[in-house]
Amino acid sequence: MDRRTFIQLAGPALLQASGEPAYHTVSPYAPSSDAVLPGPYRGAVTSVHSDAAVNSRGQVDGATVRKMLSAGLRSLTGAKSDRDAWAAFFAPSDVVGIKVNCSGAPNIMSDPEVVGGVVENLIGAGVKPQQIYIYERFLNQLESVHYDRQVPSGVHIVAVETPRGSILGYDPHTYVEVEFFGEDDTRSNLVRLVSERFTKIINIPNMKDHGASGVTGCLKNMAYGNFSNVARSHRHAQTHTLSFIGTLASVEPLRSKTVLHVMDGLRGVWHGGPFVRDRRFLFYPKSILFGTDPVAMDRLLLDIIEEKRKSEGALSIFDRSMANINGRRARKDPRVNAFIREPGHIEYAAKLGLGENDKTRIRLTALSV
Length: 369
Known about the structure:
Blueprint: E1 24-26, E2 44-49, H1 62-77, H2 82-87, E3 96-99, H3 112-124, E4 132-138, H4 139-143, E5 156-161, E6 170-177, E7 187-191, H5 192-196, E8 200-203, E9 206-210, E10 214-216, H6 218-223, H7 241-249, H8 254-257, E11 258-269, E12 282-283, E13 287-291, H9 294-311, H10 327-330, H11 345-351, E14 363-368
Parallel strand pairs: 2-14, 3-4, 3-8, 4-5, 8-11, 9-11
Antiparallel strand pairs: 1-6, 2-13, 6-7, 9-10, 11-12, 11-13
Helix pairs in contact: 1-3, 7-11
């Protein structure tokens, strides 16, 4: 079949529960033959922790981060050198997109030291600076982080929407069509750089609570971070994040091109995410997770956020009682929710074949440096 006429329908019909939105996914891109989620390390996650990564003032130590990046990817791949570890995923000919998350800046974001270390290792593996793109959807969020201070000249730092609301950065031929709440615009288009420019993508999410999806980790940064018109899925107490996140993450060529996930857990948010209006809800796991399986990584993130919330006396992310919904109070009161949370989006993504959700099948390697 001609690649330009290939149409991929999202999610097998058997997965659709009664009342689930009717998704229609259109993409002219066929799956890659050699790199499709969950990648070569299904169910495998390496976690690297260091007490020295973040000091008492919340400042990140760059030298420690580089040690964590080295230990993590070597452990995941079994490589004996940093160059070999990164070369397992990236060739000098690749054009690499680095999907950062800046929505919670300046309190939490894909840390510049982490992103700078990733770029350094890509260059060490032979990828030229001019073939590396750090990208995010919104210009004001991206500019506030100053990644330019951590990367060499030639590395592109690109916002998709310039100005905000512009559709020019999105691919008109690759999209998911669905109506949630009677909205006029029912189409979410893929970032044009993903479909037309990048050959590989590194996903760098954070460890964050999310009022609608329960958590925002690899899957949500991959899905909502690479499509337009996504916030419409959670306007009311009952949301559609359960199925929308996995559906978006399944779209080609995003699914095939996202080959590595580096979860920045130096800082975390245990309530009020993803924007962190109240610094009381920040915490410091001082960890970085590595894997090719976003479902397995997010399944572990659920436990991290739930355990922290429990220790703080917060409402469980699995609580689904309408009696505990209060959108106005939820920003400051962890004993209520803004929405009926949908942490089940991770299990749903597993049913779409995006990774391993069963904890008995997840192989966690925990390191300290």
